[in-house]
Specification:
alpha+beta, elongated, Protein translocase subunit SecD, transmembrane helix, SecD_SecF_C, SecD/SecF_arch_bac, 3 domains, Alpha-Beta Plaits, Multidrug efflux transporter AcrB transmembrane fold, protein transport
Length: 599
């Protein structure tokens, strides 16, 4: 039997939608097989339980007391850092005006726990000296001006670290007047072997008063001894070092490849207004393939940064080591970019061998890394789910009952046309399951009881779209139009109503997600996701399917059990029993009005 050419477009739409669903589940199985994804949606704290940590604030001054304002600010920043991992439905609260309690669903890995509980004081320091943090397998002792022996690696290739761009051509940046200077660029490459450059000398150490934060006079014999003895590969190598903002610091990079002597703190995390990551824009405004991290400083921070970059840029030709500006988080250097321009507008760009993931990680550290205090871990315990699988089962049972009621009403009201509603709801359920499962892998989304409620509410939203569409089509049939024409004109009228209704739901979900907190955000998130799924199902499945059915003899001919019988609907004029595929059966429909006229 040849296919009707008039249904080619709807059939193509259905096949495209089927391909999208298949691709979705292929991706889910792939990330489960070769990645960290799972085959079911992740559950939230109330349904699965998780880990609870109690953190106690530790101030630099042991005699100072933590104020309620400091504690609330710390709570807000920690909550931001937790939420930056996705819609995980974690809970962050204060306890007794002294501690911060963090409850995380599931069993987070050690990296996540360390990121949350470690004391995080984001600071910017000038680089004075760099050296290899990895012990060499074969060492070559060399004598320095101070008589101290150092070793340079000859057989060990260090991992990639942040290093310098090649010095640009000898032109001074335009800093006069009100000209906005382009952001400084940073590159991260694979160095051949970071050697102990700019080794401190006895002359520098003897200088009584450093002129600025980049002055080698900060390096005392004690600092030099710490630097020489530091082995970054040893666990806890820098734990005993004091991070005093007014003094130099000996430390390592986070990957333990490079070690540093850094000058005093010149900026800290409070000077950062925002940090984002993405692809750098070219001269024409179009994105390039260069991944960058953009920094926006506050007004005061921008002025500080302008002063620092003015000094560091002047060092570029003379000393590429002291041209670097280290970003220090919890006493470790997370990046040490070079300075390639004077930045007078409070905006900087860091580029290099970034991936999107590594750039996003650095941006999050810059944005959320500044805490007004550090914290010590008091307790870490596993916690049981507050509701558990029984409540989840009851919620799913409520959803099933609601689904059955919708199906029963559809079959009663629309006869066999109601089967389209059943098929659409099944497709929507499958798509919702797949999307929520994939979001658990990509955005750490976890389904809570509030989220389950949002999914249940979505059943009514989806059913409402079907009812609007079907009733519009039936109104067109009542006007005496053939079913094929009624489907097209009814869809044009219903489409505007469906878009308006779902647009209102999506707007409400967005506002609720942005303004609410805790589990309410989970409800808003699932409501928004299922609203978008409703639009996809109605446009890509329900409408094409009805268009195809309109060209069949059973539905197009207005069979009494089709739900589109003109006589039962009280059509105003007679019409062919079947108008599909451009031909008619020749059997007129006897409408109620015709029967009365004949009588």
């Amino acid at each position: 039997m040849a296919l009707n050419p008039r249904t080619r477009g709807p059939r193509r739409t259905l096949w495209t939608f089927a391909a999208i669903i298949i691709a979705l589940f292929v991706l889910i199985f792939s990330v489960n097989r070769w990645g960290t994804g799972q085959l079911t949606p992740k559950l939230g704290l109330d349904l699965e339980g998780g880990t609870q940590m109690v953190l106690e604030p530790v101030l630099a001054d042991p005699n100072a007391e933590v104020s309620s304002g400091q504690l609330e600010k710390a709570r807000d920043i920690i909550a931001q850092r937790v939420d930056s991992n996705g819609v995980a439905e974690a809970e962050v609260s204060t306890q007794g005006g002294r501690n911060i309690v963090i409850s995380i669903p599931g069993q987070p890995d050690a990296k996540t726990l360390d990121q949350i509980r470690k004391p995080s004081q984001l600071r910017f320091r000038a680089v004075l000296v760099t050296g290899s943090g990895i012990p060499a397998t074969v060492t070559t002792p060399t004598s320095t001006a101070t008589g101290t022996q150092t070793s340079e690696p000859t057989a060990t290739t260090p991992k990639p670290v942040f290093t310098m761009d090649p010095a640009p051509t000898a032109t001074s940046p335009a800093t006069s007047g009100n000209a906005v200077v382009p952001p400084a660029l940073v590159s991260e490459t694979s160095p051949t072997a970071p050697a102990a450059t700019s080794t401190p000398t006895a002359t520098a150490a003897a200088t009584p008063t450093p002129a600025n934060a980049s002055d080698l006079a900060w390096i005392t014999p004690e600092i030099e001894a710490e630097f020489t003895a530091l082995d970054c590969t040893k666990a806890g190598a820098i734990n005993d070092f004091v991070d005093d903002p007014a003094k130099p610091l000996v430390t390592c990079s986070t990957d333990r490849v490079e070690k540093y002597i850094l000058g005093p703190v010149e900026l800290d995390g409070t000077d950062i207004a925002d940090a984002t990551s993405g692809y750098q824009s070219g001269n024409n405004g179009q994105p390039t393939n260069i991944v960058e991290v953009r920094l926006n400083f506050t007004g005061e921070g921008g002025q500080k940064f302008a002063n620092v970059t003015t000094r560091l840029y002047a060092l570029q030709a003379a000393d590429q080591t002291r041209n670097r500006f280290a970003i220090v988080l919890d006493k470790q250097v997370i990046s040490a970019p070079s300075t390639n321009a004077v930045i007078a507008n409070g905006q900087a760009s860091i580029t290099g061998n970034f991936t999107i993931e590594s750039a996003r990680s650095l941006a999050q550290q810059l944005k959320f890394g500044a805490l007004p205090m550090s914290f010590a871990l008091q307790t870490q315990d596993d916690i049981s789910p507050t509701l558990g699988k029984e409540q989840l089962g009851l919620g799913l049972l409520a959803g099933l009952i609601g689904l059955l009621l919708v199906v029963g009403y559809s079959l009663f009201q629309y006869r066999l046309l109601g089967l389209v509603t059943v098929a659409s709801l099944i497709v929507a359920a499958v798509l919702t399951y797949g999307v929520l499962t994939l979001l658990g892998w990509s955005h750490n989304f976890r389904l809570t009881m509030a989220g389950v409620t949002g999914v249940i509410v979505a059943i009514g939203v989806t059913a409402d779209s079907f009812i609007v569409y079907f009733e519009r089509v039936r109104d067109e049939v009542r006007e005496g139009r053939p079913l094929v024409t009624a489907v097209d004109s009814g869809w044009r009228r219903a489409r505007r109503t469906i878009l308006a209704a779902d647009g209102v739901n999506l707007l409400a979900a967005t506002v609720l997600y942005l303004l609410a907190a805790s589990n309410v955000r989970g409800f808003a998130f699932t409501l928004g996701v299922t609203t978008l799924i409703d639009l996809a199902v109605v446009f890509l499945f329900t409408h094409p399917l009805v268009s195809i059915l309109a060209h069949t003899k059973f539905f197009g001919g207005g069979h009494p059990w089709s739900g589109l019988d003109p006589e039962r609907l009280g059509a105003k004029t007679t019409q062919p029993r079947y108008a599909g595929a451009g031909r008619f059966t020749g059997t007129p429909v006897r409408t109620a009005a015709a029967k009365e006229a004949k009588a």
